[in-house]
Amino acid sequence: MKKGNLHHYRGVLILLVITTVFPFFIRSHYHVNLMVFVGIYTLLALGLTLLLGYAGQVSLGQAGFYGIGAYVSGILTVKFGINPWMALPIAIGITSILAFFIGFSTLHLKGLYLAMATLGVGIIFHILFVELKDLTGGAIGLMDIPSLSIAGIKLDTDLKFYFLVWFIVLLIFFLVTNMVNSRVGRGMRAIQGNELASNCFGVDSFKYKIKVFVLSAALASLSGFLYAHYINFLSPSVFDFSFSILFLTMTIVGGRESIWGALYGATLLTLLPEFLRRYEDLNVMIWGLVLVVVLIFFNRGIAGGLDISIKKLESRFRKIGEISSGT
Q1: Which of 159, 163, 166, 155 lies closest to 29 in space, CA to CA?
Q2: N or C: which end of the chain has fewer CB within 10 A?
Q3: Does residue 152 have a pLDDT over 80?
Q4: Which residues neighbour 238 within 8 Å (Cβ) at sequence distance 6 or greater?
Q5: What is the pLDDT, as a whole number, of residue 308?
Q6: pLDDT for 76
Q7: DSSP assignment, residue 146?
């Protein structure tokens, strides 16, 4: 097993231990609730990390795909009485099909043009969530969405849903780790580095971009499904373009070149606003200051900064070991 792979798998194991013991040390339902949202947003940011950090494509429409996953599942369970677990593949399937056609139409664009095109798509989805009142409930929202259950056990508490969300996060991390260290991952990195050169070496860049775009949308849809059956209520305001900006910020601040950046960014940008609530009028200024400091001193995001720091520490310990053995 390669050293890089071992590092990632060790990280997944550590995350498993932390997420398992966390609820037993923090008994507050409020903090467990926050960690549920950290898990949901981590899945979203992970999809964007693959799209932006590995394939080099910008999307400002993730909130739209997030909303489609939530609304399709919500509508199927509320209006048609379908079991939520049966609604999940339908929601992801519809989102993936839409993402395929959107990606096929927009991924010929680059840079700001691609960002504006995906932003427009996200806004269109938001308008549909508001205007399709018979299905979505419009501005009033979609209510009475059923909670999830497994083997007859209803996941109707924060703690029960916490373990479900983080089990899914760990599973997705494991699968994504395998993917980014495979031929597919190398192909994505080649596209980000130089699309023309990657085409010359036999990498079908457009095909790869569409696949990653669809995968990113599918992860957003999965996040929407979890959100819908956790909150049991959907409002269009949760899926407007400002949330797409938030998810993109999570990816960049966390470190777009590392799958762990999704976790760091989602954790920081979910917990920090809650911590700053106590400062009332100063919270926006402090929030902005924290983000500026992170981006200035960690220009590769938190994950990149931590990676550099760990490598420096390893180098120093190695030198100390060499000096000690030499003496």
Answers
A1: 159
A2: C
A3: yes
A4: 67, 70, 227
A5: 61
A6: 96
A7: P
Residue 322: C-alpha distances to residues 125, 313, 315, 327 (Å): 60, 14, 11, 9
Query: Closest Cα to residue 59, out of 251, 188, 228?
Result: 251
CB 63 within 8 A of CB 122: yes
CA distance readout (Å), 94 to 99, 131, 250: 9, 19, 26
Please tell me which residue, 48 or 322, carries the higher pLDDT value: 48
Domains in the chain, CATH or no CATH each: 3-326 (1.10.3470)
Say what the pTM is: 0.90
Write out pLDDT tens, residues 250-264.
Answer: 998 888 888 898 999
Read off the tokens for 237.
């305001």
What type of residue sits at position 104? F
Backbone φ and ψ of 61, nearest 5°: -115, 15
User: What is the distance between the alpha carbons of residues 262 and 256, in angstroms, rounded to a whole number?
Assistant: 7
